[in-house]
Amino acid sequence: MMLDSVVYRIPAVDLVTFCGVVAEDVLSPHGALLLSRDTDFAALSPSRRRGFAFSLRGAGVTSVAVRERPEVALQEILEVMARGKRPHDHKYRNLHHDAMYYLTGFCEKVLFGGPGNLQIFMLLRAGRMLAEAVAADPDIPMHLGYVLRKDDLLLSHSINVGLLSAFLAHRMFPDREMTAVSVAAGGLLHDLGKTYISEEILNKPGTLSGKEYEIMRRHPIIGEAALQKSGVVDAVVLKMVRNHHERLDGSGYPDGLAGEAIPKAARIAAVADVFDAVTSERAYKRRMSGRKGVSLLMDNIGTHLDSEVVGVFVGAFGMYPPGTGVVLSDGRSGVVTAPGERGVLRPRVLVQRGKNGEALSPAVFLDLSATPEVFIRGCTGEHVPEAI
Ligand SMILES: [Fe+2]
Ligand SMILES: [Fe+2]
Fold this sequence. Notes:
By secondary structure, the chain is α+β, with helices and mostly antiparallel strands. The chain folds into three domains: 7-72, Alpha-Beta Complex (Molybdopterin biosynthesis moea protein, domain 2), CATH 3.90.105; 78-317, Hypothetical protein af1432 (Orthogonal Bundle); 325-379, no CATH class. It is built from 13 helices and ten strands. It has a five-stranded antiparallel beta sheet with strand order 9-8-7-6-10. Strands 1-5-2 form a three-stranded antiparallel beta sheet, with no helix packed on it. Strands 3-4 form a two-stranded antiparallel sheet. A hairpin with a 5-residue loop joins strand 8 and strand 9 (359-367). Helix 4 crosses helix 6, helix 5 (153-172) crosses helix 11 (264-278) and helix 9 packs antiparallel against helix 10. The radius of gyration is 22 Å and the shape is globular. The chain starts with 6 loop residues before the first strand and ends in a 9-residue tail after the last strand. Residues 190-191, 219, 244-245 line the site of one fe (ii) ion.
């Protein structure tokens, strides 16, 4: 199903996060062209989108006729929203590419070069880059610079955990820029020790044997030792690498730390690590939807994960992350597109089907924050895409 024929109106203010195409010229009350037809918002930077939204509002324009990008199929939109990631966004693809460049360079230097200043520089550069991206764009969870390639799963996972950890640190410690830089670097490197473990064990489709599992469980200590050997002294980075598999109830590894004894930065890494791991495809498992990923985080509060960190995460993503299929109390159904203004339980929904299951054309946007009489009754099937 293609969406090129579906035209609908959105509030002008929603252009800030809109990624489709303008369907009709937008004119001011005096006839001046404010926004031309076919403008592709997916190609615009967040600041330019904000600029359009503000200028339209200033001119008294309250809504704009739009359509989805014609070459994008519905399934693709659902897949991208379901991941909360947008591979079509060049800005974030570049961020991913640059982070991968520095991280790869750093890892190679650590693996083969021994101690030195160059790798420390590369580490700080990569960490700072992610931290700055997070500070500049509070919507970063919706844009995780994610380009999944089968041959660099570990690097993609590392970058996602770095970005997500920086995002969480930025929200939890907004005044401590250096903390976010260190946490980003720690997230990037949390699984460095896995580069010393063979591919057969890392991507084994079946269950690991007892010996293989033991080898796998050594990766936090191996990673920490490699970093120390190459001169990394940042305590936040080292603790995230060593302790990101600790659990609140003390059942984790390698040190069996419990509760407050687990460094806060390691608790941040644990949440980012679990979420990215369960919502990503692996050779040995299917990925979980964003909604199920959030539920899993909440189920593990107190036993495995830190309640404050999960709270920050859920506050940002919502119980119904974008891409979640929902059934409304009036029988209509659709897909969540964005968090609502009145909390995580009342998001914005693209209503695609009517009360009797009939397809709606055009689909309509419904802001549950503004319609208190309608609520989410349940979730429909998960939109689980193949790897991008
Ligand atoms: Fe790990
Ligand atoms: Fe990990």
